[in-house]
Amino acid sequence: MKFQLHRRTFYDDHCGVDEALDEPGVTGDGLVVRGRHWILLDTPDHSSKMHRPLAFELYHSPVLSFAPLNMPIEQYRASYNTLYSGLTRSLPDHLNIATLEQWTGKSLLLRLEHIYQNNEDTTLSQPVTVDVEVLFSHSLRLYS
């Protein structure tokens, strides 16, 4: 298996561009490429069950943020709700919330996406129906 992320050559290596690939970058030391690569090995029938959830986990991970705490943690926990879920139940494994954003005033735009293609998986590619009116913990008026 050949895996090439980035290459730098000081002369034409006759691999396609007919010129040297010398990009010095800002510092002059050459471009530095960093990343993480995941290789999943499975049968074609089962690979989508692995790579779809993992892709969402890797690319849509939670954003952690911190602020100074000006009171004891016990007082903070007693004064504020530290756990919240806007959903009354989990979404099916083959659905993802693609968009949930404020639209106008008190209106929200919600887009759900089915993350599996037709015939990609015998179970997870099947159509799914979700009752959005009971999905959220707060009452919503729906406009379609």
UniProtKB/TrEMBL annotation:
SUPFAM superfamilies: Galactose mutarotase-like. Gene3D superfamilies: 2.60.40.1360, Golgi alpha-mannosidase II, domain 4. GO terms for cellular component: lysosome. It comes from the Eukaryota. GO terms for biological process: carbohydrate metabolic process. One of its GO terms (molecular function) is carbohydrate binding. This is Glyco_hydro38C2 domain-containing protein. It comes from Anisakis simplex. The lineage of its organism: Eukaryota, Metazoa, Ecdysozoa, Nematoda, Chromadorea.
